[in-house]
Amino acid sequence: MTIKELIEELENFxxxxxxxxxxxxGDHWHSQVCKKISDVDVRSVEYSEYHRMDKIVDKDDDDxxxxxxxxxxxxxxxxx
Length: 80
Prior knowledge:
This protein is mostly beta strands.
C-alpha cells in the first residue's frame, strides 16, 4: 500500500476514530489482536526468506542499497 492509497482509505472514516495495528498473536487459536500505534517513521527493510516478509534492518546512511547478505534494502514508512 502506498501513502496515497492509505490516505484515500482513511478519508472514508471519521477523523477522530482511533487507529491501531492488528495482527495474529501467534497462539494456537490465531487470535487477532490490536496494538497501539506509537510511532510513524521511515525505516530500512529487506525481504526475509525466513520470515517470508519484509524485515526491518539497521542501516547507516553511508551504506549502499545492498546488505551484507546481498538483499536489496528499501526505505518505507512503518507504523509501530
